[in-house]
Amino acid sequence: MRLLTTTMLVALTATGAFADDSWKQDYQVVKFGILSGENEKDRIASYTPFEAYLERELGVDVEIFTAGNYDGVIQAIAADQIEFAFFGSSSYAAAYTETNGGVKPLVSRLQNDGSTGYYSIIVTRCDSRLTDLAALEGKVLAFADPDSTSGYAVPYFNLSKLVDPKTYFEAIPFSGSHEAGVQAVVNGTFDAAATYQTNETSGIPQRMVTKGMIAEGEICPIWQSPEITSGPLAARTNLPEGLIDAMKTAVMEIPMKDPEAFKAMSGGADSTQKGWIEVDHERYQWIVDMRDWLKKERRKTG
């Protein structure tokens, strides 16, 4: 009887393992999207080790998907062209709305200090004498992308409580990406730009200094938002549960299994991320509501 029971357990375990892997028949290539926070070359370089790690862990081919703007990734997951994507909070909310709830968050970032959020900041040249929002009246403030959380939604939402951005600033263009906006401030194209940082040592400006794109001391933050919930790795809800579970497990385990790949994808030498936490949609509902408010504001002036 004991032998029979053991044999049955082994058979059931094998059957379960096979069922969990059955998704591989239909998903021999798994694609994940990444947003345009950095230039495309650096984005791909940062995630290539992660791509290789996933191929080892999942046992299928994995491909990185990039686009020139956030909407390209949102539309790709909405059209079932990619299976997963790393989103900011606002771009996740946009994808959730675009797909009528057809995406769900899996994990988000956990920092060394235990925090799970970051901040939108407005930066200027340190030598510009533009040291607060009052000094920016009549100046050009660049936002990153219409679907960027820290580069547009949060700063616009918060600034609107104080002033009317459309009339307070000379212009409020989109730069296309965080790095492009910061670089344009350094070059004098914009007076200020919205971007993000996790803390004083980790963020887009700090990363650009490390990469040699700008000099230390060229860019200074003059405004900071309330804390923003870090964006998630999200999956299409129409994927097999086995694939979703396998991806979540692989991402959660990468800090232990491949520290170098984890370091590269989380910011390199400037990274303050130590791991991941599991998240659900409720964590981001306020972002969905904020985007709805922004949409209504645009309709008023449209």
UniProtKB/TrEMBL annotation:
Q: Name one Pfam family in it.
A: Phosphonate-bd
Q: Which GO terms describe its cellular component?
A: ATP-binding cassette (ABC) transporter complex
Q: Which family does it belong to?
A: Belongs to the phosphate/phosphite/phosphonate binding protein family.
Query: What protein name is recorded for this chain?
Result: Phosphonate transport system substrate-binding protein
Q: Which organism is it from?
A: Antarctobacter heliothermus
Q: Which residues form a coiled coil?
A: none
Q: Which residues form the signal peptide?
A: 1-19
Q: What keywords would UniProt list here?
A: Signal
